[in-house]
Amino acid sequence: MRTKVTRWMTKAVAVLAAGAGLAVLSPAPQAYAGGSCSWAGCSQTYNYSGVYATAFRNWTCDWGTTGSWSTGCFSGSSYGLSNGAHTPNGEDWDVFRVDAGWCYLVELHAPAKKWHVRYDRRGKSAAYVKVEDWGAAYIRGQSTSTCP
Fold this sequence. Notes:
- By secondary structure, the protein is of the alpha+beta class.
- It is built from one helix and nine strands.
- The strands form two sheets. Strands 3-8-5-2-4 form a five-stranded antiparallel β-sheet, with no helix packed on it. A four-stranded mixed β-sheet has the order 1-9-6-7, with no helix packed on it.
- Strand 6 and strand 7 form a beta hairpin.
């Protein structure tokens, strides 16, 4: 009897592990582009750069994942982020702006991954960066002279 229970538990663990693996490998959902969402499913932007930043409601292009950028794929209302602030919990903010003439260091989070990107817009127009649902962007630094 104990052997049957052990085999059953081993199979159950294998099935759960396989399901978790598929969830990690599944493509991340596209940005919600709506006004409200559950706190876990919202895209969020945090500003820890020491300089003001701006988030926008909607990513309007039909391509891209967290960290993708464009010079015009945004719409909707804006939300100002002073140092230490973040977009509101329970609300979906799909885009943040890298201001013209600035270089931003950003830590991006998406399900099961984390990475850093420098968006260098010194001498260029503003860029808009996508943050998918279940994703987050942490603006870590901003500068007009060097890339942080």
